Amino acid sequence: MIDVAFPYFDTNLSWLSNNYRLLLEANDETVPVRERLRFLGHYAYQTKEFFRVRIPNLLAMGEVSNDIRNKLNLFPDSLLEHVFETVDNQLREFNDILTGSLLPALHEQGVHLYYREALAPEHLGFIRKFYIEKLFRHLQPVFLDSRRSVKTPFFEAHKIYLIVRMQHWESPEEDWYALVNVPSDHFGRFIELPELDGRRHFAFIDDVVRENLSLLFAGYQILESYGIRAERNTELMIEDEHPAQLAQRILKQLEKRNFVLPAQYFFESGMPLYIRQYLAEKAGIPMNEFYERGHYVHMPDLAGFPALSRRMDYPYQKPIPMQDQDDSLSIFESLQKGDQLLHLPYHSYEPIARFFNEAAIDPHVREIHVSLYKISASSFLLNSLISASRNGKRVTTYVELNTKLDIQENLQWSRKMRDAGVKIMLSEPGLKVHAKVALVKRKVQKGWERYAFLGTGGFQRLTSREIVDHALLTSHRELTNELELLFGYLSTQDEPKKYRYLPFNFLSITQFNLQRRLLDLIDREIANCNAGLKSFVTIKINQLQDHILIDKLYQAGQAGVPVQVIVSESCGLISGLPSISDNIVVSRHVDRYVENTRIFHFANRGNDEIFLSSCDWTHRNLHRRIDICFPVLDENLKNQMRQVLRNYVNDNQKSVRLDLYQNNLRIQDDTRGKVRAQEANYRLVEKIERTGPVRKTE
């Protein structure tokens, strides 16, 4: 039952609800088969992340006092039981979709993936040769015997191993155990085998290693082997989820109780209990750190299944170039004529690349400030920044410390940028810069000119053609002036509370004014509704978890304001609660591209306002990061965003409605034609560039 005195859906269960939405897409026969495999891989990745991020928190909350748990309306033991039952049910459905639907669908496309089945005799010779000539040199077999120190870690995190039980011919009564690494980082997870019977065949590299264990352990009889993978970088997100004072109380209690973040070991289905007990004893692994994971461990690799045929993928959508750019003008001269709004990935990224490339060589450019959020070597931006610095520009970057990215890669690029004279400022651990922004300052005869990039997604994402984001290029005086104030603050690395006087009137910045401004905007809609004036609130967002903003949306709905929430991930707001949220509709949108854009739309008595943002409505984003929200001011661009949102609201193909329990309910609407938002928005961008600005329609 839902506690109406605490009307918020649990974050953990909402995460799992979103995971199930991915399974629905994987089970949709109208989706091309390789794209369905990608959704299964995405589901497996999100489940892995759930265990890495959410399970440690739940285990930790089981150690805190009852008064804290009661305040949070949290019952960890029963919630963990519900979570594990839900995950188990989803994993069974995952396996049913893969074996009962997707593997046969691959077969119909002339592709066979060996899945826990004997290899055909015609393939054994190829596999033996591949093992001897290529694979063998990458294997590191380790016996687990009494001479090995328990303190020495058996498992390297994030790698797949086989644990092998065998007997030596000299002592057949004694069992021997060994670990063998599976070198998927060198060869990929799937090995293509010779064509047979007119079909292309693939095998998991795990099975290639398994098939040749007798060669690796000469003189031993192989009895059984099972996959296992260790995940050690679990996270405790207490400070990211709770106000500072409460978070400190929780952390102090955990410290007193010597709470240790658990490691996690995911093992293949069928591994006997006695093998887990052997590993627990030899490696000092608590039994509660073992989790079963289907017939193969680490199935996110399904997302990287080889591309074999265009029929197995979504049809290619060619990036659409902007037509209003005059090649005789610089990007800065173009922006003086008006803002440019890119709808990604439908638009070409060329204007963004041009923005930074021209800034690097323009003799009038003096300064470039960029919030990178994360460094990625695949980003086109880094070379531009290095070039700019070598050309005498003052270049400052703000980078989040993030262990999820490749640390060595980060160090290499950081070193290259520092060697070129780029100033790198790292985010403070408790205050990360999540905003996706850049500022270019030019000194011309009439004075300083400022140009800005304001985005909903980070630069490391901008080279991906799989993510939906929006990016605004502008020379708007107030926006660029306030962005310079933000970068000035970031250069101090001081607490935001020391800078309350910063006059952010056009930009809304977390730590300064964003939450308060959102509350004011919703309050205005409530007042307008009470006065009989036009009112509505439409929110498109990744995550909605902040209770203060959820309460305000409840208040708006109760006042009669139509509230539409479109999420792509988790949502703590419960729609359809009688007398609380029966005027609020929540939908979840999942399609071929990953949704990352945040859009906030307010009616404002008919003089509507539209904002784009990098900020989800979570405690972490609102209180522990620097995030940004900015208005779309140009009327033509607002018209575009109105239509973009309208397409999401009207989507009856890839959106689902969330009920009281966040079940993903397919939309049954025969009153209008089929609307698929991502497809409609691609056609919208085509129309914009073919015919000109979109006009406002009701």
TrEMBL record:
InterPro entries: PP_kinase, PP_kinase_C_1, PP_kinase_middle, PP_kinase_middle_dom_sf, PPK_C_dom2, PPK_N_dom, PPK_N_dom_sf. GO terms for molecular function: polyphosphate kinase activity. Residues 330-495, 507-678 form the Polyphosphate kinase C-terminal domain. Residues 8-113 form the Polyphosphate kinase N-terminal domain. Gene3D superfamilies: Endonuclease Chain A, Polyphosphate kinase middle domain, Polyphosphate kinase N-terminal domain. It is an enzyme of class 2 (transferase). It catalyses: [phosphate](n) + ATP = [phosphate](n+1) + ADP. An intermediate of this reaction is the autophosphorylated ppk in which a phosphate is covalently linked to a histidine residue through a N-P bond. The keyword Nucleotide-binding applies. It holds the Pfam family PP_kinase_C_1. Transmembrane segments: none annotated. Residues 125-304 form the Polyphosphate kinase middle domain. This is Polyphosphate kinase. Its EC number is 2.7.4.1. Belongs to the polyphosphate kinase 1 (PPK1) family. Catalyzes the reversible transfer of the terminal phosphate of ATP to form a long-chain polyphosphate (polyP). Keywords: ATP-binding, Kinase, Nucleotide-binding, Phosphoprotein, Transferase. NCBIfam families: poly_P_kin (TIGR03705), PRK05443.1-1 (NF003917). The gene is ppk1.
